[in-house]
Amino acid sequence: TITSNMAFARTLACWDAMTFIGKVVSNGQMQKTAKVVVETSVMHPRAKKWINRKKKYLVHDEEGLRLAGDVVKIQNCRPLSKLKSFTIVEVIKEVERHLDEETGKLKTAYSDIPNPYPKGKEKIGRRRKK
Question: What's the whole-model pTM score?
Answer without folding.
Answer: 0.68
